[in-house]
């Protein structure tokens, strides 16, 4: 049996009885919740631009500024090698890493909406502190608060979108998170392009503008309904059914509501959801959804480009304004990729996008490494033709990532976990994602300095491995109801040997999550 295919005879419970219409209420709910992605995206885009601005460097990192002005005296690869400078970027993700577990508890006990509101408030305070920062300590504190906001919103928003969306269009609507992330990156680069010309406080405007998406999401979240899944999980059955009828646009929701109740009853028997993730029946979700995909999403090398695109382009010999302009082009490629994925992922499936894009991304990373090995690092400006070629390669890489590992890295984990471990599983997804995001942010510039073009060959090898991982281990989840995903693993060529029928667990009781 090929790769991640599942048996044709797999029988789903009541999926064929689900009914839905696309309602304005449903669209509003998804659009407001998806604003959480704009918080994540704006920060991804703004930090690299700000750290390339001369006014910002002169105030907080004068040593880096002097090195930048004297780049001909050293290898271009090392122009921005400064661990405090990279800590400015990575501190946000350390904050998100710590608070994602608090977000998990709040998301399960109080609902997805509560976590979204907490994320917006924390992000708002962090943006204000960064805008008025007078020293590095204020910068780091502001970044940590932004990280708390990211921890809450990235934990809750993908779950919210997956639970609100009908099974047949779940991929499209869940990817609103990635679309708003990409739009946030694009807007941040456009803001940086404009504020770079405002001296000496343009960087403050870039950092402070993060309050806009925070306010929009916070105010909008006050009017959001809680998801039917969460309401049922909290025992609010009547309210849960009313919301389900409203978002589905029909009163004929008996089959879907019955599945939600069944899933909730199983969830209530789980006293220790994190421990339950270790049981045999949840082994595929743990390995693929909680660990593999979020780790691989960062190891593609995409975020190293997003964090430091203006810095990277300046190292290639572009001027400050030109480097920010090039970053706008690459973030535009991400938006186009996200739109492509939204339109086609429910037709062609998750596996197709993962595997095809991995092949492309491998080729682009190899091409980038070879070009840099031959033409870069001698303290001279690159020929214009080579510079244009590198921008095109990076744009193509961004487009491939933007329709695959970017959106699907959030979509697939959010739809794999059963209700009883969903909040716990998503918190591990965010935790793993933030660990590797922070490591890439902290280590990329020093790796670029010491490994040089070899860092891109490492990324190429990792992309090849992760594409193979998806081919063999991930079953296709398109149009499968979220409460019935577990059946795919029971019929998968590899995972069925581990999960069996889902009733036998070695060392743990799958119902109570207690040791035998």
From TrEMBL:
What keywords are assigned to this protein? Membrane, Sugar transport, Symport, Transmembrane, Transmembrane helix, Transport
Q: How does it sit in the membrane?
A: Multi-pass membrane protein
Protein name, please?
Major facilitator superfamily (MFS) profile domain-containing protein
Q: Which InterPro entries match?
A: MFS_dom (IPR020846), MFS_STP/MST-like_plant (IPR044778), MFS_sugar_transport-like (IPR005828), MFS_trans_sf (IPR036259), STP/PLT_plant (IPR045262), Sugar/inositol_transpt (IPR003663), Sugar_transporter_CS (IPR005829)
Where exactly are the transmembrane stretches of this chain? 23-42, 84-102, 114-134, 173-191, 203-224, 286-312, 324-345, 352-374, 386-406, 427-447, 453-474
Q: Which family does it belong to?
A: Belongs to the major facilitator superfamily. Sugar transporter (TC 2.A.1.1) family.
Entries under SUPFAM superfamilies matching the protein: MFS general substrate transporter (SSF103473)
One Pfam family recorded for the sequence: Sugar_tr
Q: Name one GO cellular component term.
A: membrane
Location in the cell reads: Membrane
- Where the record annotates domain Major facilitator superfamily (MFS) profile, the positions are 29-478
Instruction: List the Gene3D superfamilies hit by this protein, alphabetically.
Output: MFS general substrate transporter like domains (1.20.1250.20)
Query: Principal place where this protein is found?
Result: membrane
Spell out the CDD domains in the cross-references: MFS_STP
GO molecular function per UniProt: monosaccharide transmembrane transporter activity; symporter activity
Q: What is the lineage of its organism?
A: Eukaryota, Viridiplantae, Streptophyta, Embryophyta, Tracheophyta
* Keyword Ribosomal protein belongs to the record: no
Top-rank taxon of the source lineage equals Eukaryota
């Amino acid at each position: 049996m090929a790769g991640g295919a599942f048996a044709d005879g797999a029988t789903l419970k009541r999926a064929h009885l689900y009914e839905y219409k696309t309602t304005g209420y449903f669209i509003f709910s998804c659009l407001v919740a998806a604003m959480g992605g704009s918080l994540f995206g704006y920060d991804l885009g703004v930090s690299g631009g700000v750290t390339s601005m001369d006014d910002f460097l002169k105030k907080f990192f004068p040593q880096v500024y002097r090195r930048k002005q004297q780049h001909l005296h050293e290898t271009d690869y090392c122009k921005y090698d400064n661990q405090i400078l990279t800590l400015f970027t990575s501190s946000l993700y350390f904050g998100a890493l710590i608070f994602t577990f608090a977000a998990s508890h709040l998301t399960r006990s109080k609902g997805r909406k509560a976590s979204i509101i907490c994320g917006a408030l924390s992000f708002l305070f962090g943006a204000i502190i960064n805008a008025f920062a007078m020293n590095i300590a204020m910068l780091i504190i502001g970044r940590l608060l932004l990280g708390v906001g990211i921890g809450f919103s990235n934990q809750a928003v993908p779950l919210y979108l997956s639970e609100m969306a009908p099974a047949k269009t779940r991929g499209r609507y869940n990817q609103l998170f990635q679309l708003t992330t990409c739009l946030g990156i694009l807007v941040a680069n456009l803001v940086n392009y404009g504020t770079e010309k405002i001296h000496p406080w343009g960087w403050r405007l870039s950092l402070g503008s993060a309050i806009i998406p925070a306010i929009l999401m916070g105010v909008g979240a006050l009017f959001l309904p809680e998801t039917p899944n969460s309401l049922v999980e909290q025992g609010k059955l009547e309210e849960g059914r009313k919301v389900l009828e409203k978002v589905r646009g029909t009163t004929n929701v008996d089959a879907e509501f019955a599945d939600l109740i069944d899933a909730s009853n199983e969830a209530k028997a789980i006293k220790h959801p994190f421990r339950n993730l270790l049981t045999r029946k949840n082994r595929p979700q743990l390995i693929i959804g909680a660990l593999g995909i979020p780790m691989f999403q960062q190891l593609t090398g995409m975020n190293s480009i997003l964090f430091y695109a203006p810095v990277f382009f300046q190292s290639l010999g572009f001027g400050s304004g030109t480097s920010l302009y090039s970053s706008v082009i690459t973030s535009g490629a991400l938006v186009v990729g996200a739109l492509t994925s939204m339109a086609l992922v429910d037709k062609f499936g998750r596996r197709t996008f993962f595997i095809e894009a991995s092949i492309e991304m491998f080729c682009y990373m190899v091409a980038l490494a070879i070009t840099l090995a031959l033409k870069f690092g001698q303290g001279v400006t690159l020929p214009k033709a080579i510079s244009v070629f590198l921008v095109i390669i990076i744009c193509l890489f961004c487009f491939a990532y933007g329709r695959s590992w970017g959106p699907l890295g959030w979509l697939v984990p959010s739809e794999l976990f059963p209700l009883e471990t969903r909040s716990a599983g998503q918190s591990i997804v965010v935790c793993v994602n933030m660990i590797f995001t922070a490591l890439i942010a902290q280590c990329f510039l020093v790796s670029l300095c010491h490994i040089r073009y070899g860092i891109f060959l490492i990324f190429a090898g990792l992309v090849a491995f992760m594409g193979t991982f998806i081919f063999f281990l991930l079953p296709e989840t398109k149009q499968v109801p979220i409460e019935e995903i577990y059946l795919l693993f029971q019929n998968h060529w590899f995972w069925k040997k581990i999960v069996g029928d889902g009733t036998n667990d070695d060392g743990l009781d799958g119902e109570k999550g207690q040791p035998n």
